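The protein record minuted underneath.
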Amino acid sequence: MNLKIKRYNSTFEKEISQILQTEIKDESIRFVTITGCDISSDLSYCKVYFTILDDSKSKDMEESLNNASSFIRGELSKRVEIRHTPELKFIYDTSIRYGEHMEKRIQEVKEMDKQKSNDNK
């Protein structure tokens, strides 16, 4: 990934977060956390990864964000100097939940090892 795309990813992440907090009228969307952006190499598409506290609402939130993507894209075009603002696709980020799951598994293994070493003494 080249430097220009990395800069755009960072800028888009920051600006989309700001737009969601200040410009969107839907109160539920304001509590979304943007975790990353991935702009295609030809700058035509941007995957916007997000997370929310309540996993059960992730599908509804993804749909709401994708419905609002044209408005968000319009606001983004006013804030970021780019010839053509990429099409936005919002995707629920499962990596945080996966990381929490793996951390729990690691703790379980550590506890099992600790128990085995105590049993061997």
Q: What stands out?
A: Residues 3-94 form a domain with the GMP Synthetase; Chain A, domain 3 fold (CATH 3.30.300.20).
